[in-house]
Amino acid sequence: MAYRYGGARALVRLHERHLWEFWATWCEARSAGVRLPETEDPNYASLEVLLHHVLQCARGYLQWVCTQLELPDPGIDRPPPPERAPDEAAGYLSHLLERWRDPLRDVPREAYRKPVTQALTATNVEAMLEHAVMHPIRHSFQLRNLIAAQQARQE
In sequence order, what DSSP letters do the residues of 3-47 get, joined into one string? Predict the structure, then answer.
């Protein structure tokens, strides 16, 4: 995968790696019967809703990046709804990550660092790509902690 800016290539590859890691961790949590703690955050209503949330965000991050860089829409399908997400997530992830690979290849380094204002805060495209990488890592971390806590209670 040749990219004009190697930093973008690294972030795209890391995003892919950590989304697959999240999927594997999510499957482990589901197999273990993990239940998410009660919260008012609608993204934590169930494991299925959390899965949908991560998939939807991964789609949204690239759409936002492409908009900021004035690139064409990456053509990512909407993720499956929560009730179908467990059965369709692997196929959807393949589609999603395929769409992530191409749009950023020819974008020069300077474009990633141009300030962008969003919701009263300034950021840039590179920071959003870093956020996209961290999002599945954070949720994997949360799920691994819930799995460990459940295993500790069972011992």
Answer: -SSHHHHHHHHHHHHHHHHHHHHHHHHHHTT--PPP-S-GGGS-H
Q: With contact defined as beta carbons under 8 Å apart, do 19 and 93 qualify?
A: yes
Bridge partners, 122 (sequence order): 117
The number of CA neighbours under 13 Å toward the Cβ of 5 is 16
Q: Closest Cα to residue 49, out of 63, 35, 61, 32? A: 35
State the pTM of this model.
0.93
Question: Rounded to an integer, what distance in angstroms lies between the CA atom of residue 98 and that of residue 74?
Answer: 10
pLDDT in tens, 77-122: 999 999 999 999 999 999 999 999 999 999 999 999 988 866 656 6
State the DSSP code for 102. Answer: S
Pairing of strands 116-118, 121-123: antiparallel
Rounded Cα–Cα distance for residues 55 and 148 (Å)? 24
Determine the Cα angle at 138 with ends 1 and 48, to 5°: 95
Instruction: State how far the alpha carbon of 105 is from the alpha carbons of 4, 8, 81, 153, in Å.
Output: 6, 8, 30, 48
Backbone phi, then psi, for 123, in 5-degree steps? -145, -170
